[in-house]
Amino acid sequence: SQQGEEDPQALSIQEGENATMNCSYKTSINNLQWYRQNSGRGLVHLILIRSNEREKHSGRLRVTLDTSKKSSSLLITASRAADTASYFCATDAYNTDKLIFGTGTRLQVFP
Amino acid sequence: DVKVTQSSRYLVKRTGEKVFLECVQDMDHENMFWYRQDPGLGLRLIYFSYDVKMKEKGDIPEGYSVSREKKERFSLILESASTNQTSMYLCASSTTLVGIGRDTQYFGPGTRLTVL
Prior knowledge:
The complex is a heterodimer. Chain A is mostly beta strands. Chain A has strands spanning 5-7, 10-14, 19-24, 31-37, 43-50, 55-58, 61-66, 71-76, 85-92, 99-101, 105-110. Helices cover 0% and strands 56% of the residues of chain A. In chain A, the strands form two sheets. In chain A, strands 2, 4, 5, 9, 10 and 11 form a six-stranded mixed β-sheet that branches. In chain A, strands 1-3-8-7-6 form a five-stranded antiparallel β-sheet, with no helix packed on it. Chain A is globular, with a radius of gyration of 13 Å. In chain A, 36% of the residues are buried. Chain B is globular and about 45 Å long. Chain B is 0% helix and 51% strand. By secondary structure, chain B is an all-beta fold. In chain B, strands 2, 4, 5, 6, 9, 10 and 11 form a seven-stranded mixed β-sheet that branches. Chain A binds chain B through residues 1-2, 30-31, 33, 35, 40-45, 48, 88, 90, 92, 97-104, and chain B through 4, 31, 33, 35, 40-43, 45, 48, 50, 58-59, 88, 90, 92, 94, 96, 103-110, 112.
């Protein structure tokens, strides 16, 4: 069952611009994570934000979480061509070790 | 660094064949997962295991089975492969220990399986 839905499905920007991706989910969570997937490869964990946090930073990444709206956003600042990938949000299935992934946003950054 | 390896990057099998996909992790993680990934559908959980010899069905277990005889190894088995099982298969592991890294899943590079 799909918990997270990313928006937009695809995003194309120029190098140097910021990229914003959104994720909405349906049920209560302990945390929300963002993962990145290069074409044809496995997923790589980027950042985790807990339900009692509102914002978190890691390098050029900024994640926000609004539990009242059941939504999160991932902002990549000063994008680079190497940021081209698919980005997935994942929420924990409450009190289990499972994650529920969204369908992802495909980001294309043109040099 | 956590390393999760999968036995093959690409695999081509014929309908009806028995297929084994192997996954090994080197971080002594308790949890291991098998997903399939299809365009427009995201990642769907097939099976997961939270301990040796333990397994739980995920969202789409039909047509699959799993085996976890050792903590580091989690195998996905297609008893009789069908064309609708053509997909990218991803293995992941995570720890149940409280602290940094809890809840994060570490993925292998994936196996792209084609069933003809």
